[in-house]
Write a structure and sequence with these properties.
This protein is mainly α and 275 residues long. The chain is built from eleven helices and no strands. Helix content is 78%, strand content 0%. It is elongated. Residues 43-275 form the ABC transmembrane type-2 domain.
Length: 275
């Protein structure tokens, strides 16, 4: 056997016996890859944290008089009413940014290279979801800390209630992230995905119980608020932070999160495999 034949035979054997890494390894490596640009870009971190703080400052001043209306819950300050909503707004914003990041990867050729490698499509999607979940957890935790230190946020549910509200906002944002990822894998164009994401986020955030009680909204917006999953999530998070017992809103929120996660993940994988 010549040297060339020996080399070809050895390469063929190595190719035949080579195995792809496991799902956990792929997800870990790809999630770190997705997170690295976030932490290497201080400006991106700064503006990501600045946005919820500006919202907290503006909305706590603009809507503060709502606390004096008859429909507002008695014995609750407006800042205690508002902070759970800001947690959900931050979580949904992070979720919508998942779609933009995915379209960028689709356009810059990174995912095309992944397809030429033994990388499972679901690994790419789960890694993006995990990376944004971790980024969202960091942002929500900082929002809670700064709201407590700067704005005097001190709900009657204490630290346990605040953590419950944070986890519920994080769960909701994570499940919505799958819907946005599905949108990205089917629409592909960053401009279209961004425009649709902004529209959806605005409707979800403002046609809800985020800033005023639903009963205080115009009737046609109440109709939207009653079917808006964020209304149930924010109400449940508010109850947890105020130390109230878990109610129907919490169970409805968890059920909705489970359903949209399953549908979103299935649709995202189908869209990703279209090539």
């Amino acid at each position: 056997m010549t040297a060339l034949e020996h080399t070809v035979t050895r390469d063929a054997v190595e190719t035949a016996t080579w195995r792809a890494s496991g799902l956990v390894t792929q997800v870990t490596v790809l999630a770190v890859r997705a997170l690295r640009p976030v932490f290497l870009d201080p400006a991106r971190v700064f503006f990501s944290l600045l946005q919820p703080l500006v919202m907290l400052l503006l909305f706590s001043q603009v809507f503060r008089s709502v606390a004096d209306t008859p429909l507002f819950p008695k014995g609750v300050s407006y800042i205690d009413y508002l902070v759970p909503a800001i947690l959900f707004m931050t979580a949904t914003t992070v979720a919508s940014e998942s779609a933009v990041s995915m379209t960028n990867d689709l356009r810059n050729g990174v995912l095309a290279r992944f397809r030429s490698m033994p990388v499972r499509p679901v690994s790419v999607l789960i890694a993006r979801s995990v990376a944004d979940l971790m980024r969202g957890a960091m942002e929500l935790a900082l929002v809670l800390i700064l709201a407590t230190l700067v704005f005097g946020y001190s709900p009657s549910g204490g630290l346990v209630g605040m953590l419950g509200a944070l986890l519920l906002a994080l769960t909701t944002g994570w499940s919505l992230g799958w819907v946005f990822l599905a949108t990205a894998t089917w629409l592909r164009a960053t401009e279209n995905v961004q425009a649709l994401s902004v529209l959806v986020v605005i409707v979800l955030q403002f046609a809800s119980s985020a800033f005023v009680p639903v009963a205080a909204l115009p009737e046609y917006i109440q109709a939207v608020a009653h079917v808006n999953p964020l209304s149930y999530g924010i109400t449940a998070a508010r109850n947890l932070s105020l130390g109230n017992a878990p109610d129907t809103a919490l169970y409805v929120t968890l059920l909705i999160c489970g359903l949209i996660s399953l549908v979103g993940a299935f649709t995202a994988v189908r869209g990703f495999k279209r090539g």
